[in-house]
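Please fill in the sequence for the structure shown.

STRUCTURE ENCODING:
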């Protein structure tokens, strides 16, 4: 694969019930688990936006999707300020600079963009444009903070290296060990490994966005049709 962010992928070993054609669990390194854990830092609005912007992914009709679309369609005349729509539709992730270090970058937000106060003697800045500063100036000067790209030998984001992890299909994450794997299989009703086979895959941005959408929306929120 090419080396740009959108084409970056992480390896994953799937453990599959060949008889019932079901993925039981996966084995992965810290790169994949870091991405999974980063889901917890994402605002729901970000997950909805990323999913909706990916035309290759099926759309899940949820209450939150309807809520997001309502804000998109709402005239700014009904909002307290014009920036309110940006805050709701493009919420900022406070951990985004850490998420820049992920092997596969999910959130495409421009995190290092700020607006500095128009008063040259004031150093205040905001994520939002044209906000009235305490000095009566306006945050109108576009600036960018420094974001350091990770080196090839970076130690990770949330997880230490040197260990594999087991991830169940419902996203329970356990340190990899024979005991953990046997316990997981036992919890799922598997007393032997006769029908279990392995499959090696690579997972990229589109698959991870879809997974985050399923976790946060499909399995948690109520379908609007119900």
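FILLED IN BY: designer on duty
SEQUENCE:
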């Amino acid at each position: 694969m090419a080396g740009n962010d959108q084409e970056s992928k992480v390896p994953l070993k799937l453990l599959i019930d060949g008889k019932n054609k079901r993925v039981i669990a996966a084995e992965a390194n810290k790169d994949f688990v870091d991405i999974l854990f980063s889901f917890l830092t994402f605002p729901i609005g970000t997950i909805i936006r990323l999913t909706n912007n990916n035309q290759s992914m099926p759309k899940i009709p949820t209450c939150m999707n309807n809520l997001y679309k309502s804000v998109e369609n709402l005239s700014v005349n009904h909002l307290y300020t014009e920036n309110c729509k940006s805050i709701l539709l493009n919420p900022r992730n406070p951990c985004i600079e850490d998420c820049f270090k992920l092997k596969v970058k999910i959130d495409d937000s421009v995190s290092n963009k700020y607006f500095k106060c128009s008063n040259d003697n004031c150093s205040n800045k905001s994520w939002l444009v044209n906000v009235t500063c305490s000095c009566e100036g306006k945050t109108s000067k576009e600036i960018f903070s420094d974001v350091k790209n990770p080196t090839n030998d970076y130690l990770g984001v949330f997880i230490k290296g040197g260990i594999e992890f087991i991830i169940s299909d419902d996203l329970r994450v356990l340190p990899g060990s024979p005991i953990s794997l046997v316990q997981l299989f036992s919890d799922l009703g598997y007393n032997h490994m006769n029908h279990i086979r392995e499959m090696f895959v690579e997972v990229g941005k589109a698959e991870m966005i879809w997974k985050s959408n399923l976790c946060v929306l499909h399995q948690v929120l109520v379908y609007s049709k119900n």
